[in-house]
Every structure is written in C-alpha cells, then in structure tokens.
C-alpha cells in the first residue's frame, strides 16, 4: 500500500466520526522506484491531505517531508521528496488503525483488508 | 502502445482458478479490456497520467490495461482475497505497479478527489440483485472525471435513468455495444459458450 492510497482510505465502521486519516503501524516497508512525473505531482499537490501524508511517511520511516508544502511548486528538490513519499514507499506488512475506535485493519503483502465484521456495518 | 500489443499482453494474464459464482466472477477478456481502456485514453484522455481505480478488479485485467497505458497510479479494489492474490501475481508478471485494496465496494468510503477515473466490469446483478447499480453508485461517488462500466444491453434505459437521476451523472453515454463471450465456467452452465450483448458506458460525474 502506498501513501497515495492511504490518503483516501477511511474507517467505514458505522457511527465513527473521526474516520480519517488512519494511523499507520508499519512492520515492513519496502521502497520501489517509480518514474518521476512533475506535472502529475503538481496536480496531486492540490488534492492531497498534507498532514496525513507527512504523518504516514513518518510512520514508514521517512522524515524528509516539510510540515507544510512550499508556496513555490516548481521547487524540484521538494517535488522529489513528495514523489518519494507519495509513490515509492510501500507498506508490505502492518496495520491501519482507526483513530476513534482503535480497530486495526491489517495490511498483508501490501494489501489492506478493509472488510468490516458483521457488528461494524 | 498499439491496441493489438495491449490485447496480446492482457491475454497472457492468469485468470480465476476457482471462480465464485455468488460473486459473479467472470474474466474480462483481453478483447473487451483492451478496447475499453484504449478508447478511454484515445478518445477521452481518461487514463494516461491519471489516477485510475478498478472496482471489482478480480484478477486485475482492467487494472493491468490501465497501467500499460501509463496511468500515473492504478488501484484495484475487490472483496475476494484469492482474486487479489492472482491480480498481484499478474502485476508482477507484467512488471507494473498496481495497488490493491480488499473491501466491500458497497461499504467503501473514499475521501477526497484523488481518483480521476473509475473503470469496471461489475457484477450484472444475476446473483445478488441490484449489484450492478450498487457498483455504479459507488463509482460515481469516487470518480472526479469519468466512469467506464459494462452493463447488459437489456438494462440500458434503466441504467441511463438511474445514472442521470440518482447517481449525480452529468452525462451517460453508451460508447459501443460489445458481445461478451462467456465460456462455460460453472457446472450449471448448459451451453458450452454464451454470448451476451453488453454496453460500454461512459459516465461523467457532476463536479462536487
């Protein structure tokens, strides 16, 4: 699971208000190179929840992202860090934790399991 | 990439080893999958450099096609762990990067406007009534740019009405009509092969 996916996942347990973001508990993280596409990244900058990305990246061991995205989008060193965090960090094993209920959604072989139990629907 | 090349690559993918009838698991053949995604990109620019979600991805044929057409990010969603396992292997074989999420699409809530395009070959609703509409409703909530979906031609008027009236569609067009070849997959199938008329739809959501 990459952080671009984490940035859209919410806890869909019935009645939960604080559904996003899910906290990451990382057990195994691997890095896979992805081609750098600055136009795509600039386009994504407006759509990404920045704090969720920074916190998610930190949980996966990457601390280079600034607390706020810079005003100058064309800043290439920044875009490279953004690229790395968003697309190159892969959570292979771990959990996504609902901040309200503590419920853990397991991540195995890179696939988060968001299926709810019967009493959570 | 040329259409023929895309179709060839998709034809090599592994498909369901033990298809589950209650989930209406049928492979999306390389002929349909290649044409669907090729049209989405060449006629509408909805795939290359976009974030593409594949709802009910099964073994990942549509996801693979989107990746091969240079989507910036492809995410496959499915409820069945065995299919997702096969889909992951297919992605590895093709050396493409696809993220997968295991979930019930009807209960999924995705935040924000990150997904540009949803592509899907949803269940037709022959096992779980209304499944086709549930998938369409879910897709229209998630896509910010377009939804491509296959539905039986016999449901055409029903789909158009529901999309425009209930699912926030700005437009709902049948791009083409295809014949879906379903080989005999399940024991209860009497004929060796059956041919269903399906519509390839393109829906545009209204901007939120």
TrEMBL record, chain A:
GO molecular function: protein heterodimerization activity
SUPFAM superfamilies hit by this protein: Trm112p-like
Coiled coil: none
One example of a Gene Ontology biological process annotation: rRNA (guanine-N7)-methylation
Pfam families membership: Trm112p (PF03966)
CDD domains per record: Trm112-like
Protein family according to the UniProt entry: Belongs to the TRM112 family.
Subunit structure: Interacts with TRM9.
Protein name in UniProt: Multifunctional methyltransferase subunit TRM112-like protein
Species this protein is from: Brassica carinata
Lineage, top ranks: Eukaryota, Viridiplantae, Streptophyta, Embryophyta, Tracheophyta
From TrEMBL, chain B:
Cited CDD domains: AdoMet_MTases (cd02440)
Family to which this protein belongs: Belongs to the methyltransferase superfamily. PrmA family.
Protein name: Methyltransferase-like protein 5
GO terms assigned for molecular function: nucleic acid binding; rRNA (adenine-N6-)-methyltransferase activity
InterPro entries for this protein: DNA_methylase_N6_adenine_CS, rRNA_MeTrfase/Polyamine_Synth, SAM-dependent_MTases_sf, Small_mtfrase_dom
Coiled coil: 84-111
Keyword annotations: Coiled coil
Domain of life: Eukaryota
Methyltransferase small domain segment(s): 44-139
